[in-house]
Every structure is written in C-alpha cells, then in structure tokens.
C-alpha cells in the first residue's frame, strides 16, 4: 500500500464560505490527515468551485481523464456527494471502478466489489434525490413568494437585502425596503437621463462622483457601477413596482423608486438608434412643456454671452475669445466692460425649415406673471370657488370610477381568454410554441391594465393635496409664482397651463380646469350672491 498513488478531489458549490458544509481548506486538511494515517501518497490535488448537480464540471472531467490515462491507483475524496450529485457522473465513476480504480471516501469507503458499488450507487442516488427535492421545494417557496408579491433573489441596487435592512434598523422584514443612500441617486439618474442631461456614460461618472457604489461580493469589493449595470437599472421594471421572474412579469409589494411614466420614457429614449445626448444647461423654463406654433416641433433654449468693449463700444460673443475682435484690446485689460447674458427660446427646426423667430426669457417671465395673476381670487369668492372645486372633482371622480370599471372588465375578459388558452394547452390542442407566444401577449396586456388601475388609484389619493393647491393658487397665485424657485415655477406652469406654443414672437396657451373658469369671468362681482 506504500507504493499506491492517489489523486485528491475537493469541491464546494459557491464562493460563499458560510453556505458550505466544509470549506475547501477543511476538506483538504481532513483528506491529508486520513492519507497520512493510511500511508497513501497524494500526487495531485484537484480543486473545484462548482455545483455537482449537473454534468460538465471541467476539473472533474480532467480528473477522470488523467485517472484513465495514468497508473494512478484511484481518488480520495471527503464524501460521495463532494464527488458527484448526478447519475451521469456516477456512471463514469462506476466505469472507472470496473477498470480497477479505487475511490476512497473519508466519511466511509466503498470496496471495489459488487456490494461496494451497490452502496456507492445508493449513496449517489440519495444525493441526487436530495438535490432534486431541494430544487422542487425551493421552487414552491419561490412561487409562494411571487403570489404574495415578493421577488425571489437579491434586490437590485437601490433596495436593501434582508441582511442589510437588519443591520441598518435592527428589525427583520420580508419586503424589499428602499436603500436610503442609493435610491435617491437612482431616481435622480432616471430624471437626468429622461431630460437628456446625461447619457449612460454620463450617468456612470455622475453617480460615481456622488458616492454611488456597487455592493461587495466575494469576488470583488464595491466600486464604480459600469455602463452595462446602469443600463439594467434603467430598464428594470423593479424600480416602478413590478419584477421579472422566469420570463414573466409580476406585480410587487415593494415601494417603487420611480413611476411607470418616467420608466417608460427612459426606456423609449434608450431604444432610439443614433440618439445623441447633450449636457444641457438648466434653463429657468422647461422647454419640454412648449411647442412651436408654426411647425409643431419642440422648443429649445440657448444662452448668449456678450460683452460691450469700453474702448470701441463693439458688442461681441466673449466665450473662447481673449480680446475684442475690433480694437484688439485684451479682455483682462478692459476697464468697466459691460457683460451681458441672454436666454432665448426658439423652435428646434427639427421637422423642416421653420421661420419662427426666438423670444427672450424676460418676455416669457412677464407673460407668465401676468397670466398667473389673473387666476387670483378675491377673498370673498373663496367659498364659491370651493364649491366649484367640489363639483369639478365629483365629476372627475365619476369619470375615474367608470374608467376603473371598464379596466376591471377588460382585465376579467383577458383572464378568461388566458384560462381558455391554458385549457387548450393542457388538452394538447395547442403546441407549446403557440401557447408561449399567446401567453406572453396576455401577460403583457394584463400588466398594462394593472398599471392603469394603479394610476387611477393614485389619482384618488392625490385628490386632497391637489384641492389644497388649487385653493392656495386661487388666493395668492401671483405672489407664489414671483417668489418661487425655477423648479417650483415650472411645477406651477405645468399645473395651471396647457398647450403652450411659441408663434410670431409670442407665447400662446390655455388654462387648465378650473382656472379657465376664473379667467373667463370678465366681471367677478356678478358671481357674488345678491
């Protein structure tokens, strides 16, 4: 026995130490002690980090190949389930045993005879059953989680794992809770990409500068989140409250980071071929709300930086210039030069040659201030306006109720068709390819309806906040607008106006309801009760 040489094989399924029965070092130590005790010579160690459930392990295949082509006596392993958990590899081991190769296991060896082979095969079959049963039970648990709205697996960046949530709050949870450090950056990235301020590459650099990092793994520490990972973040339905599992999309119970409309806009933008991004200046009025009255194209904005030379009074664009183009005096030597900064809004001319000219920011500011002033109510009309609001929202509520009923009926109709499709497939009246195609169609239709239903429900929840804002605007709209930040001004414009168009150097618009009622009342005293 002193002259017998053996290979040693150690294996674990994953790179995570706490998920293993014994680590590779522990297996190696136990096998080494056993070989030394029995005077066995180990000529080579084979180490693998891969599941043995399926065939095709490269290190295991190399082991059997060398065992077959050399005079090595056999293989030493910790347990049979470290060597194999599938019947295909078990058959190969049986073939090696037929050729006289020994397989020694520290946990209990099986002699190379009929009884030993039988016991080894029973042990392998038991391991195979254990793996298959564990897989079935895991799938059952996953299906139950999906029914409850919980996504199996690890959540994406922006959400906490159960372990992270426990470490952060000291409390346990089954839900996917929002990560307070990463979620705001994810939401802002969606918004910046949506308005065209950042490209994917820009999002990568911007998020890194703002402290956004990936999660630590066994293979590498946390670091910069790359372009591919950000593409997955911007296309993952998890962020608007749904999740994908095995090719199907399901409604989740976790809190969304973005709404569906924003997610969909970003998705459409990502699919645009040849789309070019620009790092845009944050203009006071959002051009996305305006359109050209001449050609229907969008509106863009640009800045002009000019200076009036104090020597020759020549006005010129001073960016990237060091001196006056006329008198050649350097900018650094200009005494009391007058610097000018203008913002212009004009048609993008993206459809055809549009002749509409631009307007200055100051003009828009003045028009909007005057228009906002017109919706301010005298205090004595506040109660009348409240009644108008109640009536208006009652009508809106009735319309939403009708829409919800129609959506629920449509959802039921699609579910019936889906059930009939499944019955046809079970009865073998429909092939799998046709079933899969229609199944995906019905799942997509149901998802769209669910999103619409959720949108209508959110509108109901926003009723009170909207009503309060209406009343606040009706009493002090002009003052609110003048003192508001640029972001707040844009919110007010979007809330009060619609159909903003630029034509003939003028801005045109209509008031949204119920503000149109206030403006159309030429003589407000007629509204007072007599």
From TrEMBL:
GO terms for molecular function: DNA binding; DNA strand exchange activity. The keyword Coiled coil applies. Keywords: Coiled coil. Residues 5-149 form the Resolvase/invertase-type recombinase catalytic domain. Residues 404-462 form a coiled coil. This is Recombinase. It comes from Candidatus Woesebacteria bacterium GW2011_GWD1_38_10. Residues 156-276 form the Recombinase domain. PROSITE patterns: RECOMBINASE_DNA_BIND (PS51737), RECOMBINASES_3 (PS51736). SMART domains: Resolvase (SM00857). InterPro entries: DNA_bind_recomb_sf, DNA_bind_recombinase_dom, Resolv_N, Resolvase-like_N_sf, SSR_resolvase. It holds the Pfam family Resolvase.
């Amino acid at each position: 026995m002193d002259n017998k040489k053996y290979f040693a094989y150690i294996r674990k399924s994953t790179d995570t130490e706490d998920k293993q029965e014994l680590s590779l070092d522990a297996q190696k130590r136990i096998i080494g002690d056993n070989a030394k005790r029995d005077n066995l010579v180990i000529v080579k160690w084979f180490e693998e980090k891969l599941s043995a459930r399926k065939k095709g392990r490269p290190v295991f295949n190399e082991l059997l190949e060398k065992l077959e082509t050399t005079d090595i006596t056999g293989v030493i392993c910790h347990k049979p389930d470290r060597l194999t958990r599938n019947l295909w590899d078990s058959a190969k081991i049986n073939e090696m045993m037929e050729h006289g190769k020994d397989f020694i296991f520290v946990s209990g060896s099986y002699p190379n005879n009929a009884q030993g082979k039988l016991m080894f095969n029973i042990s392998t079959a038991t391991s195979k059953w254990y793996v298959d049963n564990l897989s079935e039970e895991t799938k059952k648990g996953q299906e139950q989680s999906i029914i409850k709205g919980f996504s199996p697996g690890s959540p994406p960046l922006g959400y906490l794992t159960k372990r992270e949530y426990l470490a952060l709050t000291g409390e346990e949870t089954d839900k996917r809770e929002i990560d307070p450090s990463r979620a705001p950056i994810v939401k802002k990235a969606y918004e910046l990409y949506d308005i065209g301020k950042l490209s994917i590459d820009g999002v990568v650099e911007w998020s890194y500068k703002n402290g956004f990092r990936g999660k630590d793994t066994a293979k590498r520490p946390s670091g910069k989140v790359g372009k591919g990972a950000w593409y997955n973040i911007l296309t993952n339905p998890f962020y608007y409250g749904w999740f994908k599992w095995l090719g199907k999309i399901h409604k989740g119970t976790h809190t969304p980071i973005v709404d569906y409309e924003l997610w969909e806009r970003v998705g459409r933008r990502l699919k645009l071929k040849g789309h070019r991004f620009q790092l845009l200046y944050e203009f006071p009025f959002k051009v996305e709300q305006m359109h050209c009255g001449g050609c229907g194209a969008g509106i863009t904005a640009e800045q002009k930086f000019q200076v009036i030379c104090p020597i020759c009074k020549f006005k010129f664009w001073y960016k990237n210039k060091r001196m006056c183009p006329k008198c050649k005096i350097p900018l650094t030597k200009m005494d009391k030069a007058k610097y000018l900064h203008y913002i212009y809004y004009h048609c993008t001319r993206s459809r055809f040659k549009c002749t509409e000219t631009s307007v200055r920011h100051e003009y828009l500011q003045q028009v909007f201030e005057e228009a906002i002033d017109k919706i301010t109510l005298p205090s004595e009309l506040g109660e009348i306006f409240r009644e108008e609001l109640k009536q208006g929202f009652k009508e809106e509520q009735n319309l939403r109720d009708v829409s919800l009923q129609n959506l629920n009926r449509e959802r039921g109709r699609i579910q019936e068709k889906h059930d009939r499709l499944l019955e046809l497939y079970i009865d073998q009246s429909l092939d799998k390819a046709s079933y899969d195609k229609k199944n995906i169609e019905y799942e997509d239709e149901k998802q769209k309806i669910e999103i619409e239903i959720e949108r209508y429900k959110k509108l109901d929840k926003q009723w009170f906040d909207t009503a309060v804002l209406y009343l606040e605007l009706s009493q002090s709209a002009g003052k609110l607008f003048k003192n508001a930040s640029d972001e707040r001004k844009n919110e007010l414009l979007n809330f009060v106006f619609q159909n903003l168009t630029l034509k003939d150097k003028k801005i045109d618009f209509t008031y949204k309801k119920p503000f149109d009622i206030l403006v159309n009342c030429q003589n407000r005293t007629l509204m007072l009760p007599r």
